[in-house]
Amino acid sequence: MENEVLRAIRERRSIPRFRPARVPGDALEAILEAGRWAPSYANLQPWEFIVVRGEDLKKALSEIAGKVTIYRRGIENADVVIVVAVDPEIDPLHYREDAAVATQNMALAAHSLGLGTYWIGVPEGGPSSAEALTKELLGIPDEFSVVAILPLGYPDPDYRPHKERRPLAEMVHHERFGSRGGG
To answer: What's the half-sphere exposure (Cβ side, CA atoms, 13 Å) at 27?
Structure first.
């Protein structure tokens, strides 16, 4: 079976290197709209998106991201970085999942527009964690949780992303874990 959405899901790859080119405002707005339209528990929409274009802020975010990823350098050469934060007080049970779905929507939208991105997950942490430092840098309130950093730009044509995936038969279980037969 094939359609535009399934093709975008299958073809999207993490792109940590970008060429120097400006992301148009209408493309950025479409990507943010895709995040806005993500599903959330009880439609509570607890997310906030911080758009970062400033070189000094991107450099500082790159340093912070070094605590959680080896691919932090892509932040500095991305035209735009979207930081996804969420308010656990709005949805105390599902706030991280809600933000993850919004982040995935934005990554798929970016791919559909010919842009590249990659997801830097930001785990919850203490006072010197990547999360706490990101909050301090961007003025995000303490009660919020930072879930993802999403660098965005036009893919570097020399970068070759990974394409391998585990076979579906290795990860699908029927009725009970460990049962590999079809239904």
So the answer is: 18
Q: 176, exposed or middle or buried, with CB in 10 Å at 0-12, 13-18, 19+?
A: exposed
Q: Where do the domains of the chain lie, and which CATH numbers do they carry?
A: 4-170 (3.40.109.10)
Ordered DSSP codes for 65-106: HTTT-S-TTHHHH-SEEEEEEE-TTT-TTTHHHHHHHHHHHH
One-letter amino acid identity for 23?
A: V
Q: Which of 106, 83, 90 is nearest to 37 (CA)?
A: 106
Half-sphere exposure of 117 (CA within 13 A, CB side): 28
Element (H, E) at 50: strand 47-52
Specify which residues 51 forms β-bridges with: 82
Tens-digit pLDDT profile for residues 37-46: 999 999 999 9
Tokens 């758009």, residue located = 51
- Contact call for residues 132 and 58 (beta carbons, < 8 A): no
- CB-based contacts of 58-62 (< 8 A; 24+ apart in sequence): 60/137, 61/134, 61/137, 61/149
Task: Say if pTM beats, i.e. exceeds, 0.90.
Answer: yes
Q: Cβ distance 35 to 106 under 8 Å?
A: yes
